[in-house]
Specification:
Largest sheet: none
Number of domains: 1
Radius of gyration: 28 Å
Shape: elongated
Order of helices and strands: HHHHHHHHHH
Number of strands: 0
């Protein structure tokens, strides 16, 4: 029975919390709306990048191991299933490997050029959303500062009209409200900066690993003839 009051008060507490959030948001003024847009865009990009930068759709470990042993597969005559997986092109590694295989028998320079052209396209896919995340990181704190400056300007203008500059408590409350946008802007920026650093590191890591695997594959393709299908 002692837990019943707590359970009964739970909806009230939730409603009170939502009301507090709404009051905080409303007090920040019109600049809170573009900041809210930045929050939605930033969160959406972060979720998208977590889904799109999965190893399983870029460099699956099993396929990477097969590419690394490509020459052994050719010598053993078991390369056909691997070539079929390349042609299906379900992963970045498979698509790039397919380009190298299609150019088998050509010079190493020609194969490398063909692979690099496709690799630039794949890199664009890996970097999708990063420019928008950069914009959110730059714009969010600036909007926050702009909102604070606007709020302070309005506060002092109103106090000047009233002719009363002695109410320290009212000044403090006004400044606190004006700082809402700066706090909100920084709260958006900090996780976006952390996510940006994490994603850039993942992209760099994937790019380096692809280069290592493909350089070995290109060398094998350069000295081999195209297989008959």
């Amino acid at each position: 029975m002692t837990h019943l009051p707590t359970l009964a008060q739970s909806p009230v507490s939730t409603q009170s919390a939502l009301q507090t959030v709404w009051e905080y948001f409303h007090a920040g003024g019109m600049f809170m709306y573009p900041l809210l847009l930045c929050l939605v865009v930033g969160f959406t990009i972060i979720v998208f990048k977590f889904l799109s930068l999965r190893r399983a759709i870029i460099i699956p470990p099993a396929l990477a191991a097969q590419v690394d042993r490509f020459e052994e597969c050719v010598e053993a005559g078991t390369v056909e299933p691997l070539l079929e997986e390349f042609e299906r092109g379900k992963t970045a590694l498979a698509r790039l490997a397919a380009v190298a295989v299609r150019n088998r028998g050509k010079s190493q320079t020609d194969i490398s050029d063909a692979v690099q052209t496709t690799a630039r396209h794949e890199l664009l896919h890996l970097s999708t959303g990063m420019t928008e995340l950069d914009v959110v990181i730059v714009v969010s704190p600036l909007l926050g500062l702009l909102g604070t400056a606007s709020g302070l300007a309005f506060l002092f203008q109103e106090m000047g009209k009233a002719g009363d500059m002695s109410d320290a408590q009212r000044i403090a409350q006004g400044i606190a409200v004006a700082l809402n946008t700066t706090i909100f802007g920084l709260a958006i920026t900090v996780p976006c900066v952390i996510a940006q650093s994490f994603f850039n590191r993942k992209i760099e890591s994937f790019t380096t690993e692809l280069e290592m695997l493909l350089s070995k594959l290109v060398h094998v393709c350069q000295k081999a003839r195209s297989p008959k299908h």
